[in-house]
Structures are given as structure tokens and as C-alpha cells.
């Protein structure tokens, strides 16, 4: 075993750090796209004549394709080769972005967004699994995942800044066209420098029933939450989507336990450390995405910030995430157990969120919003970094793609749930406040406008209280479920330990 444990250092790919640059660039492009289009949406809606009822589909089409196809994309990467999947995903994403930027109507725009989601579902797990199989030394892995975690956490906020700039000073179409140079540089660079370790592919036949059940089940789940935001939780179609999703995903789990070559081997999902990562990260993203939505509306509608100024207002959160991920998380990851970074990280983020429950119409940005964002960024950045690393650590290299897809799936589903759940809570609180102050609202003039603003802020504060609780639950899950020791603490496969069933799948990781 000592010889095996030492192998990664001697067999390390000499171009792995160059590869990280292009993998990080591709990840930034995918994460940017999750928020950059939000700021451009009002302008695009006007130009393309998209109705108010259909505008949500510009966001939903991407989310459905991305969330529904992630597991399939992860297994394709395992089977076909992660480098191949990565490059094809980049080229396809660039072409879909060009189609979106050139859209001349609603149908073309929605088709482009669905294509972006489909190629993103191939690209995202390929990127993360490439890191998993190329960086096997504990200290190098910590640095690599620190950079990746900072981008995964902060890229959405960067998208708000870039989206504001492009929309305000150029044209909404550039929020799509900007992806093309990102994709071209990343694809050319990846093709030249990435070399996958030998023997890390999974050449088993595709589990077609598993593909169909997981895709339709995840699409139904994401659509159910998205529809709940606009049509309500008791809407017949919303309820039907949740029931269908539960049935399809239960059937998927049953099929996966029976077939010889499952799409998602249950050993990937049920090992307590990886399961703890998927669950705690998914919950944390619920809080995160809801906050992006509320702060964007608060700053633009209540405080009157321009799109560019709103984007810059998110900079403290980005700075906190980068600091938490690359300095705190990466430096401590090889010294302390992952749960001792993830649990406290989520709690620090919860404290930042707690500050924002004090939000009022006249709240000071420097005194309240800035420190709250710094705490949120520091906490989430510190927690994201070990979470991203642990999501694939100790897994058989042949399963790295689908393990990476699971962490992306938990974030994508968490984002859909966060937007719908917290927005619904905020809308209910706003409606209740307006009902209680109906006389003032009916008076008209400045008093009515003030009541409207106060009602909105009351709604945001109510939803943010829920976000505090969700982050506290993430911390509790991380501290109780995740029990692995620090990487390299004597047990070369410690980060994958947790079940006898999983044990046989650890040694191949060390061998590379």
C-alpha cells in the first residue's frame, strides 16, 4: 500500500496546472450564464416580443435541459472520455450561444437556451471529473479545488456585473455572444494540454431505462418548482409534476439497484460523505440563489441602483468567496477534516444572512449589506471548496463523471427550489403586509409608494429568515453526516471511506 499511495505524485500529469486554467475558464462560462441572462431578460423580452407569461421560459428552458440531463452527461463523460465530452460541450455551448445572440423571435431564443442547457449538462460534470482524475495529491488537489470552488461560488455574482455592463453599454445580445471567446479559448487549450489518466473510462453499456427515468424525473421536479413560483403550490399541474417526479425518481432508484451497469451506481450516492456533500450543498444553494434574486430587486427597485451599479454592489460577496475558497479553505483542507470547514463555513454564511433579516427601505449599504455579503462570501467560499473536492474524492475513476454530475445536479435543483420557494414566501409576506396597510396604500402619492416599498422589503426579510434556517440545516448535515478525516492523514483513501461496499472502488483513485 505505501507504494500505491505514493504513485500520484510521481505519475502526476506535468500539464495539469495548465489544464486547470482552461477547466476553470469553462466553469466560469457555465456559471456566468446562470445569472448573466437575468439582467438582459427585460431588454430581450421587448426586442423579441416575448409575452410576460412566456418570459420565464428563457430561464426555465435552460434549467430544465441542464438539470434533467446532468446525470446522462456525467455518464457520457465517463464512457466517451472526459476530454472529448469537455471539448464537445464547449463547442456546442458556443454554437447555442451564437444562436441565442442572433435570435429573431421567441422560438429561436427558447431553443437556443435549451441547447445551452443540454451542452452545459455535458460540459459541467466533465470539467469537475477532469480535476478529480488529474489532481490526486492532497495538497495539489486542495489548491485546484480552491480555485474551482471560488469560481463555482462567485461566478454567479460576476455574471450580474458583466450582464449589467453588456446590457447597459452594448446590447442584450452580447450576454450570449460573450460566451463564444470563452468557449473557443477553453476548447483549443483543453485539446492541446489535457491528458486523461489511462484506464479511467467506464466502457459499460449505457443504462437507457435509467437515462429516461432520471431525465424525466429531474425535469418534472425542476419544472414543478419553477411553475410553483408563478402558478402557486396548489396548482393542479404543479402538484402533478411533483407526484410524477416522485414516482419517476423512485422507479429510477429501483432500476439502478437491479441493472448490471447503472447510470448512477448507488454506491456513489449512498456513501455517507458524498451523500452529505450533495445534500448540504443543495440546501445551501437554495439560500444562495434566493438571496441573489432578492438583493438584485432590492437594490434596483427599492434603492434605484442601475444594472451596472447593482452588479458592482455584489463585489464584496465575490471577494469573500475568493478569499474563503483559495485562502481559508485551500490552506486548511489538508490540516483539518472537511466537516470542520463545511459546518462552520455554512454557519458563518448563516450569520451574514441573519444580518440581512434587518433589511429596511432606508438600510445603509456600507453598514448592513456590505458586511453581510462579506460574511456570506467567506462562509460559502470556505464550505464550497472542500465540498467540491469531497464530492468526487475516493470514487472509482470510472464513476468520476457521474459523481461530478451529482454535485452539479444538487446545485441545479437547489437553485430551482430556492428561487421558487423563497420567492413564494416573499410574495406571501408582501401581500399580507399590503393587506394590513390597505388604507395607506389606497391614499396614493408618496405614502402609497413608501408602503409598496416597505411591503417588498418585508417580503424579502421574511424569506431571508427561512434562508438562515436552511443554512443552519446545511451546517448540521455537514457536521453529522460527513465523518472522513483530513486528506493525507495516514489513510490514503480516507476521503472515500465510509462503507464496505465502496471500499473496493478506492484503490484505482490511488493508482493514478
Automatic annotation (TrEMBL):
Ranges that cross the membrane: 20-41, 56-73, 85-103, 115-135, 147-166, 172-194, 206-225, 237-255, 276-299, 311-328, 340-359, 365-384, 463-482
Major facilitator superfamily (MFS) profile domain mapped to chain residues: 19-487
Chief site of localization: membrane
Subcellular compartments: Cell membrane
CDD domains tied to this protein: MFS_MMR_MDR_like
PROSITE patterns noted in UniProt: MFS, SUGAR_TRANSPORT_1
UniProt xrefs under InterPro entries: EmrB-like, MFS, MFS_dom, MFS_trans_sf, Sugar_transporter_CS
Keyword Transferase (UniProt): no
Membrane topology, record value: Multi-pass membrane protein
Keywords from the named record: Antibiotic resistance, Cell membrane, Membrane, Transmembrane, Transmembrane helix, Transport
Pfam name, any one: MFS_1
Protein name: MFS transporter
Amino acid at each position: 500500500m505505501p507504494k500505491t499511495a505514493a504513485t500520484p505524485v510521481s505519475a502526476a500529469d506535468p500539464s495539469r496546472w495548465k489544464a486547470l486554467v482552461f477547466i476553470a475558464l469553462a466553469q466560469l462560462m457555465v456559471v456566468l450564464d446562470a445569472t448573466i441572462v437575468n439582467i438582459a431578460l427585460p431588454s430581450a423580452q421587448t426586442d423579441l416580443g416575448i409575452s410576460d407569461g412566456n418570459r420565464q421560459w428563457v430561464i426555465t428552458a435552460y434549467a430544465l435541459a441542464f438539470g434533467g440531463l446532468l446525470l446522462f452527461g456525467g455518464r457520457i463523460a465517463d464512457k466517451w472520455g472526459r476530454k472529448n465530452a469537455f471539448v464537445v460541450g464547449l463547442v456546442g455551448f458556443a454554437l447555442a450561444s451564437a444562436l441565442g445572440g442572433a435570435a429573431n423571435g421567441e422560438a429561436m431564443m427558447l431553443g437556443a437556451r435549451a441547447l445551452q442547457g443540454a451542452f452545459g449538462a455535458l460540459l459541467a460534470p466533465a470539467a469537475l471529473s477532469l480535476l478529480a482524475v488529474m489532481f490526486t495529491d492532497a495538497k495539489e488537489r486542495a489548491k485546484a479545488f480552491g480555485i474551482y470552488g471560488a469560481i463555482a461560488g462567485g461566478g454567479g455574482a460576476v455574471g450580474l456585473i458583466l450582464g449589467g455592463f453588456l446590457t447597459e453599454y452594448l446590447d442584450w445580445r452580447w450576454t450570449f455572444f460573450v460566451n463564444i471567446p470563452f468557449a473557443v479559448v477553453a476548447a483549443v487549450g483543453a485539446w492541446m494540454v489535457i491528458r486523461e489518466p489511462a484506464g479511467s473510462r467506464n466502457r459499460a453499456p449505457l443504462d437507457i431505462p435509467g437515462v429516461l427515468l432520471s431525465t424525466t424525473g429531474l425535469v418534472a421536479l425542476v419544472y414543478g418548482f419553477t411553475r410553483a413560483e408563478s402558478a402557486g403550490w396548489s396548482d393542479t399541474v404543479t402538484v402533478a409534476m411533483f407526484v410524477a417526479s416522485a414516482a419517476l425518481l423512485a422507479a429510477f432508484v429501483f432500476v439502478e439497484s437491479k441493472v448490471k451497469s447503472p447510470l448512477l451506481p448507488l454506491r456513489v450516492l449512498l456513501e455517507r460523505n458524498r451523500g452529505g456533500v450533495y445534500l448540504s450543498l443543495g440546501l445551501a444553494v437554495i439560500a444562495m440563489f434566493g438571496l441573489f434574486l432578492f438583493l438584485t430587486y432590492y437594490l434596483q427597485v427599492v434603492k434605484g441602483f442601475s444594472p451596472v451599479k447593482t452588479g458592482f454592489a455584489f463585489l464584496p460577496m465575490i471577494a469573500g468567496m475568493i478569499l474563503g475558497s483559495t485562502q481559508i479553505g485551500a490552506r486548511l483542507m489538508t490540516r483539518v477534516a472537511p466537516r470542520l470547514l463545511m459546518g462552520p463555513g455554512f454557519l458563518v454564511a448563516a450569520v451574514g444572512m441573519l444580518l440581512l433579516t434587518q433589511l429596511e427601505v432606508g438600510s445603509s449599504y456600507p453598514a448592513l449589506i456590505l458586511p453581510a455579503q462579506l460574511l456570506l462570501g467567506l462562509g460559502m467560499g470556505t464550505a464550497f471548496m472542500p465540498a467540491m473536492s469531497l464530492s468526487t474524492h475516493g470514487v472509482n475513476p470510472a464513476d468520476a463523471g457521474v459523481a461530478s454530475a451529482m454535485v452539479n445536479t444538487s446545485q441545479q435543483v437547489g437553485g430551482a427550489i430556492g428561487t421558487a420557494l423563497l420567492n413564494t414566501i416573499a410574495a406571501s409576506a408582501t401581500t399580507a403586509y399590503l393587506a394590513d396597510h390597505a388604507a395607506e396604500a389606497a391614499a396614493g402619492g408618496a405614502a402609497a409608494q413608501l408602503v409598496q416599498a416597505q411591503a417588498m422589503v418585508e417580503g424579502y426579510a421574511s424569506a431571508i429568515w427561512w434562508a438562515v434556517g436552511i443554512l443552519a440545516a446545511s451546517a448540521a448535515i455537514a457536521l453529522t453526516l460527513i465523518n472522513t478525516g483530513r486528506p493525507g492523514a495516514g489513510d490514503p483513501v480516507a476521503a472515500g471511506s465510509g462503507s464496505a461496499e465502496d471500499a473496493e472502488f478506492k484503490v484505482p483513485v490511488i493508482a493514478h
